[in-house]
Amino acid sequence: MGHDLDVLAARFGRHYPRWLLALLIISTMTMVLSSTSINVALPAIMQDFAIGRPLAQWLVTGVLAAMTSGLLLSSWAQARFGPRATLLTSFGLFLVTSLVAPFVTSIWALIAIRIVQGLCAGIAQPLSMVLIFRTYPGEGRGMALGLFGLGAMMAPALGPTLAGFLVDHFGWRAVFWLPAPVCILSLVGGALLLPTLRSLTPPRLDVPGFILLNLALFGILAALAEAQRFGWLHDATLLTGAVGLLGLAAFLWRCTHHSAPLLPLRLWRNASFRHTSWVSMVLGVSLFGVTYLVPLYVQTVEGYSASDAGLLLLPTGLVLGVAVFAGGWLSDKLAARWLLVGGLGLLTLSTAGQALMGTGASFWAICAWASLGRLGIGGIMPGVSTAAVQDLPAEELAPATGTISFMRQLGGALGINLLTFFIEWRHVAEGASAAGDAQAFVQSFWLLTALFALALWPAWLLRSKR
Question: Which residue ranges does the record assign to the Major facilitator superfamily (MFS) profile domain (predicted)?
Fold first, then answer.
């Protein structure tokens, strides 16, 4: 066939793996970048639509929740349709939604568009990893995976930097046009370079399980959001909360009774995996929650422009890039336990430092404390990847890796939702004033400090295995 992997390799020669790797890095970075680029635009969107933080946070948590679902769809879509059709469809949907988003006049329509974009990103990211494994069967695979991981990890920090400039000069709608040129490039390059690789015996998708998962995810997130807007005893809060909890119970029951569950709960019987899964959730909070909180804090309390708020995160992204490579090097010399404990320790110091600064801190002081946390993430990431599978048999490596990614995304979605809830609660408790807003953000940094400190316990319980 014209798009089999061997045919494409023969057509484009020995540089084909590099061309495909470049396409996958750029495409994935753009999708991941869009998940955080909206952060610096939230104050402008809130003002334009006359909404508060509880509703605006759906533009971030909706994406992360959909990415979480998409991760579980990815392997099925790859086997059923092949990476070529799946990725081209994802790129196409992402492009269409990026072009349509600036013209919507309803905040709920904008949230729906963001959810579609999150689903596309969640499906595309694991597929890119599969293609790298297939095109780099031996020599060069480590470097290829390192470059791909570097792009995926730096994207959340680079997104707000680019978006901040666009918001200040062209308005928040320009943020949605940011990924459009790369999506067009991805469609053209994908049509030329992406292989088919369809499975002759694709697995069946557990449709009821997937529906129950989304009812659980979005129901629980909606209940927390509605509680912020209307109170815990409002009908909307009780209804969405009931849907979420019943969906969660039914999903967990189905996972224990289905022959091929979306989430293999048997993995939690392994102590190393169980401890690492909680650390992975905290990693999601640190990656996405802090990237959400810091720009919102400096714009709301410190009076930064969108450009300055985005620029603040640029050095943290560069530090993260260096830290990821350093963490990978250390993972060959230290047990995963020490990487996790050290990384969580740095995260704890980072958020404690940001809380102790109070208001009026300098640009570089805020940047330095945030960068310290990024150094910690650089150690946690390879530690999580290693610790999750260190005591598992070979046949469990693939489901364990996918499940750990799921837990990281879930931590990001729940973390942002809970942070928003906490800020709104403390804002009202502190007098619903500008000073109350400042105190609420300071207390939210203390909340993160406590969370990161608590995560040291499961990390410490891991066996020191090399």
Answer: 20-466
